[in-house]
Structure formats: C-alpha cells, structure tokens
Amino acid sequence: MADDQPIGGSATLAAPDSASHHKLKPADPCAMVLFGATGDLAKRLVVPALYNLSCAGELPEHFVLIGVARGEDDVESWRQTLYDALKGFVGNGSGTFSTDRIDEDAWKRLADGMFFVQGDLTEPEPYTELCTVLGDVAKKRGTKGNAIFYLAVADQLFGPVVDQLNKAGLTEQKLDDAGKPTHWRRVVIEKPFGHSLDSARALNADIGKALAEDQIFRIDHFLGKDTVQSIMAFRFANGLFEPIWNRDRIDHVQITAAETVGVEKRGDFYERTGALRDMVPNHIFSLLSLVAMEPPVGFDAASVMARKADVLAAIPPAKPADAVRGQYGAGEVKGEKKTAYRDEPDVAKHSKVETYAALQLEIDNWRWGGVPFFIRTGKHLSGRMTEIAIRFKPAPYSVFQDTPVDRIRANWLVMRIAPDESISLQFEVKQRGPLMELAAVDMAFKYDDWFKKEPNVGYETLLYDVMIGDPTLFMRADMVEHGWRIVQPVLDAWEKPEADFPNYASGSEGPKASDELIGRDDDRRRWRPVVAPAKRTA
C-alpha cells in the first residue's frame, strides 16, 4: 500500500430534506434541429437525453425535434430507428434511465413532434426546406420561432453548416421595438472545437461572422455531471476549505482521466486526434478551471465564465520537457487480453499517435504560483476513473519527536467524478493502543448514499440549459483558444516521429516516464493509483 493511502472508513449520512428542492425554470417553447440525425451521437446520447427530459416533464410543452441528414430516411423510418435504439439502451442496468422499459407516454410526447429533412448538409436545398418546416411548426406547434441547431456532425462540417444556416437567414434573431429578440436562435457545437490553436481561431472567426457569442454553445458533456458542477458548491459554500485553497497549504494537484477501454472502433478518428487533443484542452482544462478559479461575484454565467477564463489565461504554454506521451501495447485489462493500439482497426502499423498524455502545468497568479498541476489521461489503463486529487503540505514532524512516529503523511482531498461519485478527505489519526502510532483514514461522502440517482446519459442538464439560454456550463471562444495555446508547443514537438512506441502495456498505469515526471522535482510525489476507491484500502 502506498504511503499516502488511507486504511479505510466512510461516513453514513442521512438524506437531505427533499422539500428544500426548488422548481426548475420552465424551458422556452422551441424546435431542436438535429444535424447528423442518423448518426451514433444522436441515437446514443442526444435523443436518449431528450427522452429522459420528457420522462421528467422537463421538455417544453411546445417542443419539436427536426432531424437533418443525408440518406433515404423519412420521418417514420427515422422515428422507428431511434425507438429501436432506445429499446436497446433502456434496461441495460446502467442506471441512465428511470425504468427497465420504455415509458411509452414519454416517448409519444417526443415522437409526435418529430420531423425529418433529407439532404446534403453542404448544399442549400435542405436549409430552404428547413425554413419552411420551422415556419410551419412555429404556427402549428407553438414553438414561437425559437430554434436550437445541434451540430452532431464531423468537425469539418461545423463551419459549412453554420455558413449555410446564415445564408438561409436561419441564424437571425429579429428584434421588437424595445430591442429584444422576438425569437431566439442558438447553435450547439460538439468537440473537437479545432485541432490546433490556428484551427480553433479560424473556426471561431468563421462562426463569429454568422453568430453572436451568446448564440454559441460549445458543449462538453463532462460539465453536465453533477459532481463537476458541485466543485464550485464545495469550494464556495463551505467556509472551511477556501482559506486553505492556495499555494500556502497545497503542495500539488493531480487531475486524472483514466479509461480501461481502447480506441474501440474509432481508429480513424484517433489517428487524427490522439489523447492530448481528445481530452486535455476541453475535458481536463474544464476541471482544472473549476478547481483553480477565483470566487465569482455571483453564479450568473458571465461571472463564472470570466473567472474560469482568468485561470486559463494565467497558464503559460506547456513546455515539451514537461510532457510525456505513451501508446499502449498488448496486455491484459481486468483479466481480458487486449491488443496493441497499432493492431486496432484503421490504425497505421507504425503509428506515432499517443493514447496516453501527461503534463505538468503552472498557474502564474497569486493563489497558485509555485503549485504544480499534474494532469494525465490514457486508454487501456488498469482502472477507469476521473478524479481531482489535492495534496496538502505535510504538518511539521517535530511535535512527534521521541515517539514511535517515523513519518507524517500528507493530507489528500479527492473529488471523484466517475465512477463512484464521491468526495473524500484523508487525514491522520492515532491508532488504538498504548503507543503513539498514526494511521491515514478516509472521511468519505458518496453521492449515491445521500441523493437519489437521477436517470442521466450526461446531456440532460446541458440540453436544458441551452433551452433556457444559460451558458454557464459551456466554453467561451477565448477559453477554447487559451486551451489550445497552452498545449500547442507540445503538439508541435510531438509532430516529430521520435516516439518509441508502444511504451506501456495495456492494463498498466501508463509509461514509466510519467512517474519520473511527477517525481522529478520532489521524490515524495507519486501518482495516485488508478483503481476504484473500494480497492484503495489495507
């Protein structure tokens, strides 16, 4: 067992008073136009999230879903395809749906408002038809002209689709005599938002010609998780932690996003992306900004986003010497043999693409100056976990002189995002017996112990926020560009084909160089084990 690991323990807590819950703000009537409506993202996440909102009664009363895609689909075949896909997900034991059977009434409310437009997304014809459909549903279905355009398409189509929407007049928000929009138009864009700093700037510029910033919702499903959103509540609603949330008491911060899966059937995508592009500028930097941000003046979107952007602006570009990359070889994950990355479908036999990335970053401001932030992400690792671990500086040892205590372990505060959503604090106690002997123990809060688990595929909160026009959980243009600015020197350095791959076995915790990185400046620093909390005991 590692020195810094606790010997167990958790608290049993009473459930909160449900009467304290507030009602949600009703979402505006609207139409959602789903580009890429026959794709995997639409079937696996977007439409199931809409179904969950329908089950919860959180969809607008006047809501329609308009699918747009190439192919020979019509509304009946598309609706049936979505229903069949949903049947395959419901009852799979994942807890992402409220029952093990489809709620036919909830599905009917959603399905009755479905329409379909067929066509090539790079040509003007489907947008002309879309104008007609949106006009019809505004009159007959009561959507009031409000529309969400969800781009569940390949990233190279983001610019062309927004351009076609603009040419067709679909992004225009008409104003009344008081200068307020008579209806709103919003565009949701999936990651990756660019592949480099230059491409992100170009994409921001392209869509900025057609849309105001408050019309753009750059979605990151990580931010839809309750545990991610609770980071701000944990920090700013508790007077206990904020006074020690700084360089005086914190030694370093670790952010880990580890996966047991490989690239599965996404070899072609991963060959163009890699672990750093796929995870760091979006997911991991979103977590980092929430951990490191200054207190906002309020929890309105503008205040929160400004403080998150300040953090990213204060991070200097990463140095290639402070980065480690890896690629998995053959091995065994959870008792199952796994193939090497280079043997995956659609992967080059001599690929230099990384499936693991680790970085050491600094935040150059008063709160965090001198505190290293270590981040890592990888595939085919020994366990699946996403967590933020904050290690505090150890207490002075001198008080325990002339006792059997030979060391004092540092305290850890760990926020587990997935799985087993939890927050735990590790601290030292005296063991029972006549001798002064210390043990590290955990005081743990688990979400499932306190709160009813709500059906969720990860997109429900985000889609609802788009409907009410709340951008708090989305990325602003400058935040996206800062993310790419930080990692761009590493991406440039990694373009050189010098990597000796594979350099870690499937089922391990990553390449050895990653351990050397975190311990380089202080040999007491170690990565936390990539295992589930229940296994992190004596």
Plain-language structure description:
With 538 residues, the protein is an alpha/beta fold. The chain is 31% helix and 18% strand. It has 13 helices and 18 strands. The protein has helices spanning 40-55, 75-89, 104-111, 125-140, 158-167, 197-208, 226-236, 267-292, 301-313, 447-450, 460-468, 477-494, 512-518, and strands at residues 30-35, 63-69, 114-118, 147-151, 185-189, 216-218, 250-258, 323-326, 328-329, 331-333, 336-338, 356-361, 373-378, 385-392, 412-418, 422-430, 438-446, 504-505. The strands form four sheets. Strands 8-12-13-7-14-15-16-17 form an eight-stranded mixed beta sheet, sandwiched between helices. Strands 3-2-1-4-5-6 form a six-stranded parallel beta sheet, with helices on both faces. Helix 8 (267-292) crosses helix 9 (301-313) and helix 9 runs parallel beside helix 12 (477-494). It is globular.
Q: Which geometry do the CA atoms define?
A: globular
List the strand order in the largest sheet.
8-12-13-7-14-15-16-17
Low-confidence stretches: 8-20
Helix content class: 25-40%
The N- to C-terminal Cα distance equals 7 Å
Strand content bin: 15-25%
State the helix count. Answer: 13
Mean pLDDT equals 87
Number of strands: 18
Biggest pleated-sheet summary: 8 strands, mixed
Q: What structural class results from the helix and strand content?
A: alpha/beta
What gyration radius follows from the Cα positions, in whole Å?
25 Å
